[in-house]
Amino acid sequence: MKSLVFFSSLFLVALHFQAFGSTSLHYQAALIPGFTGKLFSPILPLERDSAEKTLLNAFKKKVIANLKDWKDPFLESKTNKVTKEYQELDRKKSTGLSKKEKDNFYQLVYDKNEAGNSAHVLSAFLSLLIDTANNVSLRGNTDDIHGIVSLGNSNENGAAGGKGDRLPEKNGRSAKDQSQEASMQFKPGKRKRKKEKELDFEVLDLSPRDAAKHFLNTVNQLAREHNISIKRIIGNNKCKGSGYIYFSDGSYITSSANVEEIFVDFILFTEGLLRDQKFVYSDDADKYRSGQKITNNQVELIDSTFSEMFARKDKQLSDRNHSYRRYYLRELLSDYLYENYRGFGDVDGYQAVGHAIFPFFEKMLFGEGYFSEFAGFMSFTDQYKVEIITELNKSFSFIDCKNEIIAVLRGNDKLRMAFNEEVMAGEFNRRWLDILDDMFQEKPDSVGQALLPDNPINLKFGEELEYDLVSKEEDQWGGPSYYYLTKVDKYMKKLGANKETAYDPKRYTFDGHFYVAPFVDFKKWLEVNCTPYHDGDAGAEKCFKKVFKVVDLMIKDGFIDHASGHKHVDALSATHGNPGVLLELQREIESNPYLTRAFGNNDRIVKKDEGQWYKLFSDYAALRSLAIERMNWMIATYNEKLAGVNYGEGSAYWLTDSEKLEKLKQFSKLYSHFVQLAPLQKMFGAVGNVFLDKYMAVSLLHIPGTEIIDPYGTIEFRFFRCPESMQELKLINQFLKALFEYIHERRMRNEPIESVPDDIKASKDYTPEEVLHHTVEYLQKLGLNPADYQSFLNKVSKDM
What we know:
Blueprint: H1 2-20, H2 50-61, H3 72-75, H4 84-94, H5 99-103, H6 105-114, H7 169-172, H8 175-179, H9 208-225, E1 229-241, E2 244-255, H10 259-270, H11 296-319, E3 326-328, H12 329-341, H13 347-364, H14 371-383, H15 385-394, H16 398-401, H17 404-411, H18 413-439, E4 460-469, H19 480-494, E5 498-500, E6 507-509, E7 515-521, E8 525-530, E9 533-534, H20 538-556, E10 560-570, H21 571-575, H22 579-591, H23 594-599, H24 602-608, H25 621-642, H26 647-651, H27 657-675, E11 698-699, E12 714-717, H28 726-748, H29 768-781, H30 790-797
């Protein structure tokens, strides 16, 4: 009888293996993160069907032979090849184990069978979005995602370079972090299968290149069968002009170039067949991992997943009567992961968040994120999916900012902090150290060469003079734009200006060289922009004097009042291409918050919290400590690099302007999104405003540009109030010139940058006496005469 039970058990194990396959996995193991030492919550097994439950329970109780339903069909079926591992496990089970060990039998089989699986990288994407009723989400710190695939540099087209996978290398992680990587074993989840297939033990494996061809053919064939085009969204269709921006809801700028190839590359990466790369198509043959194979059975499983995805998308498009039939890359990526591992148990709840993940990922990393980094975003969204959906149900403000997840993180301090600590921290460290290395690159032929002094600072300025609209009569004249611009036109022509109508906005000139362009900004402000100029340009000064006369007349007649005065400075003229200047500039402003009171609208900052229009770290307690910690770490690592090198190695003076500008762009992207946390800021409780990114005391986003913010290549100083005269405009120019000269002198002397004090106060918490005292000291430090700035300081002292 024991022999019969033994052989029956053996056959049943083989048949179970045949029916479900080694890749139809029923358990997911807990992950031990390499950074925090905390355990992820264990993943419960997926619900088995009733037949499998019956078989498993019978097998545990050793009563298979007595079950009528399991006699003849199984005992008479053909013999299958059974591996030594299964035989050994079955033998141990027959020798008598504890009930707990017996219950874990299938888990032991799985662990043993999967130990050599080459596709461990799949686990990076196991923590997806909405669970089915019988799943428990993966929990943990998403910094640990870095243990899956090594990180490092890429070539221009986004593929990994010839040195192998991207390595956490010189810059990313400590020896302790790297030593823990080996323990970070992820277990793939249960794959969906369209239909059960018999497992062929003699199948031929496919090389990565052959697999790529096969999957590409499959995707293209399914797209043709379902009459669906595959596109990548490049941006939102919008109408943007001076003073307004309008989005066409649901209308996108798209591309069809190599979208299928990028998607297939991503699939190969998740299967461990492709080196890490950006979401940019690469035809580099070295992108494939040599010596790796994928089994035919696994290919069939992926094909069936594709089939389910396209069938479901077809049904959705048909049910909603879409005039266009498109499957976007952002949907393909998240749907593949969701369909492959979880099934569509809650498709509506999933799609409310899932299809927003990739655009969120692209925005936060400026479209330069890698396949492996996408994992951290997916995992975070899954971990906090309940909280995210709860926040979404409270408000529809995400419609305005064009991304649901961004809106949620703007509105919830706790989620925003969790995202920055769990996802962005690791990316920040690696990216900054890469930028730092690039900043200190050596000139190839500079050995023994004398360093020529830099050219003197000659700042190029651009003005945004802004005025509040205060007249009560504009509704009688067809709206604010027509009403106020008619008044401006009248006054400008009276002073002798010539109007050019071929531009939007219309612009005026007094000498045919220098132009000013007035327009109404979002129906709230009259704004005047101008031609870029250098301080001292005669034509610019002549024109500005006329503009200030127009402004004075309109204020006297009750049409406008002074508001803010954003000052643009050409980044190359201010930094000579040295990102270290930007770092010290931000340190100076963040360490001296009272400057925003002295040069800004003091009364409005104190009484109306206007500082939200030009934020500092100190103004927001929820983010202050994290921002200061990151900035001070940047400063500390910069100072370490600075020790023992000459100024030339840090300034890269020999580069072309375009090369210097690229360095400034990379710094600006990192600082704006990882230190200022600009995309996740909010203002006056609003979370939907698409322009919230730029509302910083000193914004660097005009250097690289974004979808909304134009790439002028300028530093935008937003904390200055609108100058009330030509003299005040020149005093601001003088202050900025002295500030940049001070910073450049320190950089040329290789002086370490000071850290930002941990105990800085919010700008509005300074007393008027403190603002005056500290501002006078600061002006003197820059070599300026405080008496010249009395028109600014008097607005503070009147409250004393």
